[in-house]
# Entry
Amino acid sequence: MDLLQLRYFRMVARTENITRVAEELRVAQPSLSRTITRLESELGVPLFDRHGRRLRLNAFGAAFLARVDRALDELDGARRELDDLAGLERGALAIGAENLKVVHHVLADFLQAHPEVHVRLFSGTAAQISARLAAGEIDLGVVSLPLDAPGLAGLELLDEEVLLAVSPSHRLAGRERVAVAELAAEPFITTSPDYWSRTVLDRVFTRAGLRPNIVCEGDEPSAVRSLIATGFGIGLLPAMARYYAGPPVAWLHLDDVYCRRTLQLVWRTDAYLSLAARRFRELAAESFTPERLGMPE
# Structure
């Protein structure tokens, strides 16, 4: 067996979906299937139970995956450590975030200071970022939902209010504050339950003994403000979004002290954290200030 086989196996084992992994790797699905079959042949046992075109990791596969995880993590850690010994000119950094816009200013500072570092970015839900961290696919994650996975450490970057955004022509546009009870019949534009903004929306409505009237639910957080601006509905956005360029909306405070989000930088404590990742973490710790974010003091 070789390292490529093991890396392919780990990805398939985590997703149990050959098609998805083949698309992500940009390899032919039959070729990926043959790689897994050859690995099983070398090991002498099946690693997956097959039901038609569906795969399920079996007991052999689960036991093998635990060993593969440890082996690949050690090898990846060794590579990072050697890169560090050679200096940042050979460094690499992979970051995942629910919304890449929140790290653009830190990334700009980092690349200006270390243009030779190879940086990769991924976007996804907090759960997807947690899975990428566990698989060693990223060094750092930026999330607004707590990650309960063991072996993770976090650094709070920002704790901010979450505001209600409405179109400039909305009946509430001239108001400064609004109670949740006043919004019971309002159409809400939000994300799927996998994202922090939906968690906050459900939380404040539950506290008021209500359920939000959701007319649009999706996996594109960046599209929420644009849809709100059309007048199609209203929605919750982080306070920092007021200082981003975008379609005009009116901002209101909700009368709920728990209508907030906490942005965190997270990393694994049981894996080697590269010099590049440590430098990015240091910059991030210093960069989430009102001045740096373009916000008033």
About this structure: The longest strand covers residues 152-166.
